[in-house]
From TrEMBL:
Gene Ontology BP, a term: intracellular protein transport
Organism of origin: Gloeophyllum trabeum (strain ATCC 11539 / FP-39264 / Madison 617)
Bias type Acidic residues, positions: 730-793
Recorded family membership: Belongs to the adaptor complexes large subunit family.
A GO CC annotation given for this chain: AP-3 adaptor complex
Protein name: Clathrin/coatomer adaptor adaptin-like N-terminal domain-containing protein
Length: 813
């Protein structure tokens, strides 16, 4: 039994026992009673067990502040695991017990000098996390001390503590800015990411502090951790947009001053440095890093046609297969970039085809991307895809696909008929979304063709057939907006001069128009307000086209009577406005609506003729604008929450606009950027004499020196490469001899210098200035002559030496 307990006790930390971690979540009264006793125990195992139970209860949301005094006593424990849990507890409840939390301040200050850097960092983290305003000065002192710590891990903790201290007491801002200045000078890549976060949280507008560190930060990007690369990249983008000049595109001129058609880009060297240093990060395994570098190229590249943007295409396509969540974010980036430069992704459209296992947001974004990159080369393949997507179970994807078909019909006249056929087939569908969206798209196409705002887009005689098809299927269209569109189309294009009033038709009105009015008036009471408004407009238009027809006049009077007492304000106002407008065309339109209608007819005012009323009702109708399929505003910065959710967010940070004239580049110059002069070796006079007196001649290895290879003058030395040890030994002896000679010469010079000092006064009085100058000149001439003679002698010796080698035929270098 004792052996089993010992084995269970020693294997608990190794997770061999069954679910050992679940026992800490057992919050029975018996377990809780022993926590205080365990915290005051001398056994580290019992203290650790008690702290684990407290942290487990904190994770469950159960308040345990009553153990605060007992936990504070264990702050100075030597067990690292216990100290970590104590720090977690203190961070949670220090704001509720500020008086007791102050008892541990001395311990944390002492831990700031601990030899272990992990302990120093933890102490500063807890000290800055205690939300007690009166210790703000102590926290600033601790941050300043850790900011100059030898360990980069501690300096990183100091950078994280800066925003906490600023939120605790903003009056310490000048001291914190000094700390940030110190941290920006740090050469370690480990702490620079945290420094960037602290900078943007404390003083985001003080970008001038980055002037002397900008180039070093750019070069250090590759060595930072992934999280630090993201934060530092965002900071450098803001700096570049605020302090560097905008890249300019200039047209190239030939010798005669004419434009050659080519463009040259003038980019600031510091901006080019940031782009070049961030380009290797496109190969990072972290998607956040790749997206951050994408923002660098997107916002800092000179133009959409620049070759730098093509660099980000393949890294973005690689991220599409990482995960579903990453795919959604990357598609938003691609969508925004494709709206600026669609040619970048047009060749990769197969990568954006919708799959059955895609999430709903990814399907919608892929449809938008495909529509954005549509061009003449891929429009046939994309049209087939859109027709197939229109049968999907996702109604949002169906709507976007049908709208995309209409866009294809606008952009590519060659496939207009194919698009119209597909849209008409969707009208016959039993799916309400397909029918309503197809009607809206057809209405936009017909209206665009009638006003000829798209010269390349022609429907021809298909317009009337499309409207007639929609008119005859008005009963099958249930969607309010789609029914309103059909009624508007019928009224807008009901005029037909070919109708002479023979048979069942009305003069000047298409055959299908009166029947649509009859069906709309029949169910007028149960229609939506949007359909009621268009029904009143249809009755007015038909009445203007044929005011003498009795049946048509009766239908108009009936529908106006119903609209006069409708529950909707807009419907009632529209009925009054149209009845007053038609007063000069049909005088008795409102008759029978009651005494109030008779009073209104007697009122004076401007009465319009039939031609004027027709002009008001039929002319000046603008082409309906298509919805924004991309769904992302160009002004919304990528990398923000609003770009993903299409909703404004207060946490979004807008990038500043470019400067026309950037700051002075000399502000960013440092000692590292200055060109260093080449080092000139210093040769002593004795070494120079030894080199000049003893030239070294290299000979081939493997035997004795050939005959004639040594000069007959005896001025050179023969170097036997086979016996290098002897050669170096001789050199050392010669150096020792030279050193002794130099020492003797120095002693003689010192003695002569002392004698000259003693006699210097007498000599100075005896000599005249002119004579001393002449003697100095003569001495200079003698020295120059001796130097010239020595140089001539050395040249003569080298000439003789070379001649001797050439004579032997075995000269070697």
């Amino acid at each position: 039994m004792r052996l089993q307990e010992t084995f269970s006790e020693h294997t608990r930390d190794l997770a061999i026992a069954k679910s050992p971690g679940l026992s800490y979540f057992d919050s029975t009264e018996d377990k809780l009673k022993n926590i205080r006793k365990q915290l005051e125990s001398n056994s580290d195992r019992e203290k650790l067990d008690a702290m684990k139970r407290l942290v487990a209860m904190i994770s469950k949301g159960r308040p345990v502040p009553e153990y605060f005094p007992s936990v504070v006593k264990n702050v100075s424990t030597q067990n690292l695991e216990i100290r970590k849990l104590v720090y977690i507890y203190l961070l949670r409840y220090s704001s509720q017990e500020p008086d007791l939390a102050l008892l541990s301040i001395n311990t944390f200050q002492k831990d700031l000098t601990d030899p272990n850097p992990l302990i120093r960092a933890m102490a500063l983290r807890v000290l800055s996390g205690i939300k007690v305003g009166m210790i703000g000065g102590i926290v600033v002192m601790g941050i300043r001390k850790c900011a100059s710590d030898v360990s980069p891990y501690v300096r990183k903790a100091a950078a994280f503590a800066v925003p906490k201290c600023y939120s605790l007491d903003a009056s310490h801002l000048p001291s914190l800015i000094q700390v940030l200045t110190t941290l920006l000078r740090d050469r370690s890549p480990l702490s620079l990411g945290a420094t960037a976060v602290a900078f943007q949280a404390v003083c985001p507008t003080r970008l001038d502090l980055l002037h002397p560190h900008y180039r070093r930060l750019c070069r250090t990007l590759v060595d930072m951790d992934e999280w630090g690369q993201v934060e530092m990249t965002n900071l450098l983008i803001r700096y570049a947009r605020s302090m560097l000049a905008r890249p300019t595109i200039m047209k190239t001129l030939d010798k005669s001053g004419n434009e050659t058609g080519e463009e040259s880009v003038d980019v600031d060297p510091d901006l080019q440095l940031l782009i070049a240093c961030s380009e290797p990060l496109l190969h990072s395994r972290n998607p956040a890093v790749v997206l951050a570098v994408t923002r660098v190229f997107y916002y800092l590249s000179p133009s959409p046609s620049s070759s730098s943007l093509s660099t980000i295409v393949q890294p973005l396509l690689r991220l599409l297969t990482v995960s579903k969540e990453v795919e959604r974010v990357v598609l938003v980036y691609i969508l925004v970039i494709a709206r600026r430069a669609p040619r970048l992704f047009s060749a990769y459209y197969p990568r954006f085809l919708v799959r059955s296992d895609d999430i709903a947001q990814a399907k919608e974004l892929k449809a938008k991307v495909l529509l954005t990159i549509l061009n003449h080369e891929n429009h046939q393949a994309l049209l087939r895809e859109f027709i197939d997507y229109a049968n999907d179970t996702d109604d949002t994807l169906v709507g976007h696909s049908i709208r995309a078909i209409g866009r294809v019909a606008r952009l590519e006249p060659d496939c207009t008929q194919q698009c119209l056929t597909a849209l008409l087939n969707f009208i016959r569908s039993k799916h309400d979304v397909q029918v309503s969206t197809a009607v809206l798209v057809l209405k936009s196409l017909v209206q665009s063709q009638s006003q000829s705002k798209f010269p390349a887009f022609t429907i021809g005689t298909a317009s009337n057939s499309i409207i007639s098809t929609l008119a005859y299927r008005i009963d099958d269209i249930k969607h309010p907006q789609a029914r309103a569109c059909v009624i508007w189309l019928v009224g807008q294009y009901a005029a037909d001069d070919s109708q002479k009033g023979e048979g069942d038709g009305l003069e000047g009105i298409a055959r299908w128009a009166p029947d649509v009015l009859r069906k709309a008036v029949k169910g007028f009471v149960g229609e939506s307000p949007l359909v009621k408004l268009q029904t009143l407009t249809l009755a007015s238009k038909l009445l203007v086209l044929c005011p003498a027809h009795a049946t048509l006049k009766m239908l108009a009077q009936y529908v106006f009577s119903l609209a006069r007492y409708d529950m909707n304000f807009d419907v009632r106002d529209r009925a009054r406005m149209l009845s007053a407008l038609l007063g000069g065309v049909v005088p008795g339109l409102m008759k029978g609506a009651g005494e109030e209608g008779d009073v209104m007819e007697d009122r004076g005012g401007v009465v319009l003729r039939r031609e004027q009323v027709r002009l008001v009702l039929f002319e000046g109708k603008e082409v309906g604008q298509e919805g924004d399929f991309a769904g992302v505003d160009d002004s919304t910065p990528i990398g923000t929450l609003s770009a993903i959710t299409n909703r404004s967010s207060l946490s979004d940070t807008l990038l500043p606009d470019w400067l026309e004239q950037g700051t002075e580049p000399s502000l960013r110059d440092t000692e590292d950027d200055m060109p260093q002069a080449p080092a000139v070796p210093h040769i002593s006079s004795s070494a120079a004499r030894s080199v000049a007196a003893s030239p070294v001649v290299l000979t081939p290895t493997g035997g004795a020196s050939p005959a004639g290879s040594m000069p007959k003058t005896g001025g050179g030395r023969f170097v036997d490469l086979d016996d290098l040890e002897k050669f170096y030994a001789e050199d050392e002896e010669e150096e020792d001899d030279d050193g002794d000679e130099n020492e003797e010469e120095e002693d003689n010079e010192e003695e002569s210098g002392e004698e000259e000092e003693e006699n210097g006064e007498e000599v100075g009085q005896a000599e005249e200035p002119g004579e001393s100058a002449e003697e100095g000149a003569e001495d200079d001439e003698e020295e120059e002559g001796s130097e010239t003679e020595s140089e001539d002698g050395a040249g003569e010796r080298s000439r003789l030496f070379t001649a001797g080698l050439e004579d032997s035929g075995q000269a070697h270098w």
